[in-house]
Amino acid sequence: MKLQSFFTSILLIFFSLLSTPKPVSANHSGFLQCLSLRLNDTNIIPKVIHTPNDTYFSSILSSSIQNQRFSSPNTPKPVLILTPVQPSDVQSAVKCARRFDIHLRTRSGGHDYEGLSYVTHNKPYVILDLRNLRSITFDNDNRSVWVQTGATIGELYHDIGLKNKTLAFPAGVCPTVGVGGHFSGGGYGTLLRKRGLASDHVTDARVVDARGRFLERKDMGEEFFWAIRGGGGASFCVVVSWKIRLVDVPSKVTIFNVTRFSEQSSLKIIDRWQYVSDKVDDDLFVRVMLQRSDKNMVRASFPGLYLGPVKILLELVNREFPELGLVKEDCKEMSWIESVVWFAELGDDETLIDVLKERTQASLSFKAKSDFVQEPMPVMAISKIWRRLEEEEAELAQVIFTPFGGKMNEISENFTPFPHRKGNIYEIQYLNYWRGEEKEKYMRWVERVYDEMSEFVAKSPRGAYINLRDLDLGMYGGVKKSKYEEGKIWGVKYFKNNFERLVRVKTSVDPFDFFCDEQSIPTFRSLDVI
Ligand SMILES: Cc1cc2nc3c(=O)[nH]c(=O)nc-3n(C[C@H](O)[C@H](O)[C@H](O)COP(=O)(O)OP(=O)(O)OC[C@H]3O[C@@H](n4cnc5c(N)ncnc54)[C@H](O)[C@@H]3O)c2cc1C
Ligand SMILES: *[C@@H]1O[C@H](CO)[C@@H](O)[C@H](O)[C@H]1NC(C)=O
Ligand SMILES: *[C@@H]1O[C@H](CO)[C@@H](O)[C@H](O)[C@H]1NC(C)=O
Ligand SMILES: *[C@@H]1O[C@H](CO)[C@@H](O)[C@H](O)[C@H]1NC(C)=O
Ligand SMILES: *[C@@H]1O[C@H](CO)[C@@H](O)[C@H](O)[C@H]1NC(C)=O
Ligand SMILES: *[C@@H]1O[C@H](CO)[C@@H](O)[C@H](O)[C@H]1NC(C)=O
Ligand SMILES: *[C@@H]1O[C@H](CO)[C@@H](O)[C@H](O)[C@H]1NC(C)=O
C-alpha cells in the first residue's frame, strides 16, 4: 500500500508537469468530412450519419430515451447522431472525433438515470448510438455468448431461452436495458444472490479505445478489462461486444408475489425480512416493493424467485421465514425464461417470450437514488418511508429493497470495480415517477426520503450504485479546484477503494480524457485546475 501511494504521487507530479491546457475547438464540418471519407460507401453513409435536418433525426433521438425528464423541448440536442452498422464504423467515429475535437456520448439502451448517454449541457456533442450492433452469437457448446452492446438484456434472455431452458444469465429485470451500459456498471436482478452481477460473468470484450484501436482482453490487459466490468463504460472506451459465460438454472423455478395492504402486517414482514433475506439459501430471492395501489393506498409486495419446485420452497419459507405467510396459491412453477417475462410484468406465459425483444419507450419522467443497508433498520425507519409514500407527490413512487448475501458475500470488493459486496444486507432504491413538465416537487420528494434515511444506511462512505446514477452526488464544474478532487467526491461512493485504481487505469488508457462526462473517472493528470 505504501509503495503504491508513493508510485501514485510520482505519477501525479509527472502528469501535472506534462499537461498544458489544450484549446478546444470542435470542427464539425471537418468531422463530417473525415467520417464520410472513412465510411467510404455512399450506401452506408446515410445509414450511419444523421443530421438534425434528416426527417428521422428526432425519432432516432427519442426512441431510446428512457427517462422523459430529458426529452423536453428545452433539453439540449446533439449536433449529430451516428448509428454504426459495423464495428469499424465505431472506430471511424472515435478516430475522427479525436482528430476534430468532437465530444462523443455513447448510447446503448438509453437507460442512464441522468440521461448522460444522450444529453449534456456543457458543449456541443455527437451521440454514438449502438442500436444496430446487436448480434448475439453462441459458441459451440452454447455456454459462452458474444453479445454486441446495442442488444438489450431482453434480447439476450430471449435467445438464451430459445436455446436451452436450463441456461440463464444473471442480469437486470427490465428487458429494455442495454447490455452496453448495464454490464459496464455491474448489473443485477433476480439471480444476484445465487450468481452475483452480470459483470462477474463477463469473460472477454471487444472495445475501441481512445486511439481508435480495436482491443480484446489479451490486447487491453487485465487492468483495463477489470475497469470496464463495473467502473461504468463511459470513462474508458466504447465497448462493442461482450463475451459472457451463461449459468445453469433448474428446468423448473417458482415465482411468487405476496401483497399486504396494512402497514402493521407489512412492517412485521419487512422487519423479519431484514434478518432473513440475505442469509437464507441463495436459491431464494425475495424483494420488497413499497408503492401505492390502484386505490391509492400504500401497500407492500414481496415478489420472489425460487430456483426449485414449489414444494421445497414452501418448506423452506415455513421454516425460515414463516412471517411472509407464503401459501401455495401465491406460487407458480415455470421455466426460468418465463420467470423473466413474469418479473418484467409482461405476463406469465411462455408464448410471450417474444415480448422480451420489444423496444418500448418509457412515457414517464423519474428521479432515483440508491443506498446500501448494513444493519437492519429500526421498524420506525421503515414506517417513515411508509408515511412518505402517503404524500401527494408520491402517487407513482416506489421504494424497492433488493437482498444481497449469497454469492455477493463470496466475491471480494476488488474483484470488479463494484465494491458493495460482503457486509451489505440489501440495497434500497428510492424512485419517483411523474407525468408532465413539473418536476421540482417530485425530485424533492426523493431527496426528502433519502435525507431521512441517512442515519440508517451505510455511512462511510454513503454508498451508491453507478447504474442508478445520481447527479446530486456531484458533477464536474463544482466546488473543488481539480477534476481529480471533484471526481473523488462521488467516485468513492460508487467505487469505494476501487476509485484510485480506476483513476490509474483511466490515466493509462485515456490520458487526454477523451471519454468523459459529468461523472466520469478523472485522470491523475486532471489534478490540474480546471
Ligand atoms: C427502467 C429501468 C430498469 C432498470 N433495471 C435495472 C435492473 O434490474 N438492474 C440493474 O442493475 N440496473 C437496472 N437499471 C439501470 C441500468 O442498469 C443502467 O441504467 C444501465 O447503465 C443502462 O444501460 P443502457 O445501455 O441501457 O444505458 P445507456 O444510457 O445507453 O448507457 C448508460 C451509460 O453507459 C455508457 N455506455 C453505454 N453503452 C456503452 C458502451 N457500449 N461502451 C461504453 N460505454 C457505454 C453511456 O455512455 C452511459 O454513461 C434499470 C434502468 C431503467 C431505466
Ligand atoms: C475543419 O476541418 C477541415 C478539414 O480538415 C478544414 O478544411 C477546415 O479548415 C477546418 N475548419 C476550422 C474552422 O478549423
Ligand atoms: C474506398 O473506396 C475506393 C473507391 O471505391 C476503394 O478503392 C477503396 O478500397 C475503399 N477503401 C476502403 C477502406 O473501403
Ligand atoms: C441543414 O439545412 C440548412 C438549410 O437547408 C443548411 O444550411 C444546413 O447546413 C444543414 N445542416 C446540416 C448539418 O446538414
Ligand atoms: C446448442 O443449441 C442447439 C439448439 O439451438 C442444439 O441443437 C445443440 O445441440 C446445442 N449444443 C450443445 C453442445 O448443447
Ligand atoms: C442445456 O444445458 C444443459 C446444462 O445446463 C445441458 O446439460 C443440456 O445438454 C443442454 N441442452 C441442450 C438441448 O442443449
Ligand atoms: C406483485 O404484486 C404487486 C401488488 O399487486 C404488483 O404491483 C406487482 O406488479 C407484482 N409484481 C410482479 C413482479 O408481478
TrEMBL record:
Compartments, as annotated in UniProt: Secreted, Cell wall
Cleavable signal peptide: 1-26
Short name of one Pfam family: BBE
Lineage top rank: taxon: Eukaryota
Alphabetized UniProt keyword annotations: Cell wall, Disulfide bond, FAD, Flavoprotein, Glycoprotein, Nucleotide-binding, Oxidoreductase, Secreted, Signal
Keyword Oxidoreductase recorded: yes
InterPro entries reported for this sequence: BBE (IPR012951), FAD-bd_PCMH (IPR016166), FAD-bd_PCMH-like_sf (IPR036318), FAD-bd_PCMH_sub1 (IPR016167), FAD-bd_PCMH_sub2 (IPR016169), Oxid_FAD_bind_N (IPR006094), Oxy_OxRdtase_FAD_BS (IPR006093)
Family as reported in the entry's similarity comment: Belongs to the oxygen-dependent FAD-linked oxidoreductase family.
Name used for this protein in its record: FAD-binding PCMH-type domain-containing protein
Domain FAD-binding PCMH-type: 74-249
Entries under PROSITE patterns matching the protein: FAD_PCMH, OX2_COVAL_FAD
GO molecular function, one term: oxidoreductase activity
